TrEMBL record:
The keyword Signal applies. Residues 101-158, 188-208 have a biased composition (Basic and acidic residues). Residues 87-215 are annotated as: Disordered. This is Colicin import membrane protein. Residues 162-176 have a biased composition (Low complexity). Keywords: Signal. Residues 1-22 form the signal peptide.
Length: 215
């Protein structure tokens, strides 16, 4: 067990040293150095946890020992993560400031004038497009209004023709009804006259002599 712990610690130390050397060879900036330090601290925490975990299995209360070791590891890792987040935030701010500085350096008076001219040209083009769109919309509305007027006139004409035809049909029906009534009255008058003549003829007809009495 002792040989195992020694091997694990040796491996962790070698890993930390190798990580520090690689980071130093890659970058010499303060940010790179800080990242290397955080990475080394993580390796130390992992190595310590591995050693504590191995030692816990030799104790009577293994679970309590492991829980305590995990808690220490969790706290240490959380603190290193907080440091890393703070470092990343500082690095983002630094890079943002550098980018703004580069932009400001490139923004000469001539460049600013060109940008202003370009913005003015874009606004002018936009205004022209809006004017053309408004003109087209106006013409379209006029066309639709003219077509609507024509449709209305056509509808009025058709309605007038329909009303005139209906009036003619109504008059024709009235004339036909009047003719029927006239014919009916004429027929009634003729029948009444015929009846009267027949009755008069029957009243004026001479009576026949009575038959002689039998012998």
């Amino acid at each position: 067990m002792k040989r195992l712990l020694f091997s694990l610690l040796s491996l962790a130390i070698c890993t930390v040293a190798a990580g520090q050397q690689a980071a130093a060879g890659a970058e010499d900036s303060p940010v790179a150095a800080e990242r290397a330090r955080i990475s080394a601290e993580r390796s130390k925490v992992e190595a310590a946890y591995t050693a504590e975990e191995a030692a816990c299995y030799k104790k009577f209360s293994v679970n309590d020992c492991l829980s305590a070791a995990k808690a220490r590891r969790r706290v240490a890792m959380a603190d290193l993560r907080r440091q890393e987040i703070s470092l990343n935030d500082s690095e983002r701010k630094r890079k943002g400031a550098e980018q703004i500085q580069r932009i400001e350096e490139k923004s000469s008076p001539e460049k600013q004038q060109q940008d202003a001219d370009r913005r003015a040209k874009a606004l002018e083009d936009q205004q022209k497009r809006e004017d053309r769109a408004a003109e087209k919309a106006g013409k379209r509305a006029e066309t639709q209004a003219g077509e609507g007027g024509k449709r209305q006139a056509r509808d009025d004409k058709l309605q007038g023709q329909a009303e005139h035809a209906a009036s003619r049909a109504s008059k024709a029906a009235s004339a036909a009804e009047e003719a029927r009534r006239y014919n009916s009255r004429q027929q009634d008058a003729a029948e009444h006259k015929a009846n009267r003549l027949q009755k008069n003829a029957e009243r004026t007809k001479p009576r026949s002599d009575p038959l002689p009495a039998p012998p």
